[in-house]
Amino acid sequence: MKRSHPVRRAVLAGAATVSGIVLLLSLKPGTDPGAAAAAGGAAPPAAARSPQGGRDTPGADAGAGTVLLGDEVRTPYGPVRVRLTVSGGRITKAETVRAPGGGRSDQVTAAAVPRLNQAVLSAQSADIDAVSGATYTSAGYRESLQSALDRADG
């Protein structure tokens, strides 16, 4: 077949189009609107927080301790936000209210977040190890966790 044959051009154009579409679909978005839903909910509305910035107003479980909300930390795969319950100077509950989601991030988040939450309860500090395969999420988690702990001191 000649170099300028019309069928050859059509085959090459089709192959280039298919390759472009495959590459486009394999890109990972920086944020995903469904990330909060995939992580088990969204952060509480601003009206539920006091002007102190990170303390939730006490609810039905006011006797359970002080609830502290960490800063929302942006990661390449989506935002991370941690909420702590502190009672008697100890962290009694750690939960993630925002975490990366969408595509592979759903699987990574589902595996990493429970381990991170448990690590906080064991360490009683922000000095926790990253979860393998969830490096960015772990770093964002630690940063949000530290901001919540800073609020407990302030």
From TrEMBL:
Q: Where is the composition biased (Low complexity)?
A: 33-48
**In what residue span(s) does the FMN-binding domain sit?**
76-152
- A Pfam family matched by this chain, by name? FMN_bind
Task: Give the matching PROSITE patterns.
Answer: TAT (PS51318)
Q: Which SMART domains match?
A: FMN_bind (SM00900)
Q: Where is this region: Disordered?
A: 33-64
Protein name stated in the entry: FMN-binding domain-containing protein
Q: Which organism is it from?
A: Streptomyces ziwulingensis
User: What lineage does UniProt assign to this protein's organism?
Assistant: Bacteria, Bacillati, Actinomycetota, Actinomycetes, Kitasatosporales
